[in-house]
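Structure tokens please, single chain.
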Amino acid sequence: MTEEFTFIGKRVPKLDAVDKVTGRAIYGHDMKLPRMLYGKILRSERAHARILNIDTGRAKKLPGVKAVITGYDIPDIRVGFARDNPILKTGKVRSFRDEIAAVAAVDEDTAQEALELIKVEYEDLPAVFDPEEAMKPGAPLVHEEAERNILSIMTQSYSHGDVEKGFAESDVVVEDRFKLTWVAHCCMGTCFCLASFDHAGNLTVWSSTQMPFMSQRELSMALKIPPEKIRVIKATIGGGFGSKLDTYPYEPICVLLAQMTGCPVRITFTREEEFIASPTRQPVICDIKAGAKKDGTLMARQARMILDNGAYSSWGATTPLVMMQTISSLYRVPNVKYDVLVVYTNHPYAGAMRGYGNPQATFVVESSMDMLAHELGMDPMEFRLKNANQPGDVTGQGVKITSCGLSECIEKAAESIGWREKWGKREPAEGPIRRGVGMACQLHVGGGARIYPSDGCGTTIKVDDYGKVTVITGSTDMGQGSETIIAQIVAEEMGVPVENITVVNTDTAITPWDVGAHASRTTFIAGNSARLAAADAKRQILEAAAEAYGQKAENLDLRNGQIFVKGEPEEGIPYAKAIRAKHFRPDGDLILARGWYEPPTEKQDKEFRGNISAAYAFAAQAAEVEVDTETGEVRVLKIAAAHDVGRAINPMAVEGQIEGGVSMGLGYGLYEELVVEKGKMLNPNFADYALPTALDMPPVDPIIVETIDPEGPFGAKGMAEPANNPTAPAIANAVYDAVGVRIKDLPITAEKVLKALKEKEEGG
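Here you go.
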């Protein structure tokens, strides 16, 4: 903890900050190519219906229209985790967002007019909108080739210990049902794709993808184009949060339009289309049961989850794996049983979103923990401390916990919020206003997640004659600031100034392989890879200096851009001089370095056991709220967010992630809800979707807890997703502390609080 660093632990501004605030950054919507056409997609007007006819005749005749395609014009091309999502639908539609036809035209207005000229005849079919009803025998089938409306490949059961014995040995058992609804990502940058073929049939795709190499693979599989003929270039992304993780139908549609017309084609979503056609966070119905002994020892936890996956499966269908980890391994719980069903309905389909199922799982677990504490007559904070995970623990699921600051996070969040002075008081603040405090913790992967055979990342480094360091990394920056973190790691390891470093991370034709930005893996995985490459570059520079100046390389060091004999830093020479000297010899060479990092993790076995991540991030957040007992309105006064980050490479970036995560968690807890009625989204715009603004944000105390992970780069762990996970349950628990009612379905609206207060008063 006392180690001295030059760049690690320093508050370095984001490398791209100036370009973004001055408007110089080029986003996908800014991109134009010569002869470029504009693509638009016609979507279904029904939740579930047969397609009887698609008349595209008038659209094709419209001046300026260069192509019109339907699913009947192309092979059966499918995307999605289960390959169940045709990019253009034939036979029938299964949701209001379904793609029916696509056009390419000389401008957006013409493309939109062409869509309006396409006429589709439907025959309505019975639809299913309740996931529990959808599972019943005889329910209308969303996918007729399936026997039931259940995604069988994600139907899971997990257990460790003996849960029935655990409940029998418990002195207190609580159980309840929780319901969590849809929310949207609300990225400021909407979805975008630009596709272009060259004369040799090579495809270049500019995209807002979070996973360029996986996008290359998915496009190859879907379109039967050899992957070596596909180049994916990541545009500057105006926020991802998981929404750009998958390959969605609009991307191969864009490619097909470009192929058909022989011109570059760009598709960009409008704001309304972003709401309607982007994936959502999954709605969840969860029945949870938990038991503990009188002394507060946690004994058993059982959860049954039903996930409304909507009409198709994206990678969001795999969120049960993340939910399982929280159910099985958050706190020391010896007996666990977990069952999950992923259900098809005629709703919009769910996808990956920050936390990847963990906000839902954390909400039910942390509400259940609070309920247990109250039944035990125990301080919820002390109850959490008693059962907190500790360094060296191996959970029943095989999660190997190395660094762990959960107890410290709990104590620091409690101290910041004034827990011991405020909890359980329910003192009136003014008139009908009551105040309360609540707490919630979380566990999330912080060192990648081995979902694919490899979870590695490659880095190459080039150092030019003048000391300019170009770091070429496979990792993806989607606005989270990973470029800056990688530059700091390289600067520290090499001993060169951050301002001399440029990070390149956008192009599959140039960068080494990486699996993409997800699972809070970039700082850990890409950071370790970059550090290895930087060490290799430094070794080469010192060897060049040793040859040029008659010293042994092991006697030299490089720091602050100067090469010097160890112990004599005042006699240094610029490292660029040594590099140039290397070039001017008969056997001259370049400084080209590389690093590859593969974390020491394992894929889970058939029983879902295995240490999937190289490190785990822990956090505790505490909230103070005011509740108006006459109106039900909830106002958050403060959030104390204590996060175990291993080591903070850039404290300013860490604080930004915490504050951003709390903002998303605040929206999930109090404001945000996609209103979906019989499959149709009724509020697809910022006027009607209640996204929290700066004016809604309470003061946030971002507390950095450093535990120095032994495997992380300079001890760091990932922490972007964890900042989002515990906020909503902390607020819900604070509402209970304030007025004694527990809200079990989000968001916590004034109407729900007022109704619960009236039911409590009436003894309901």
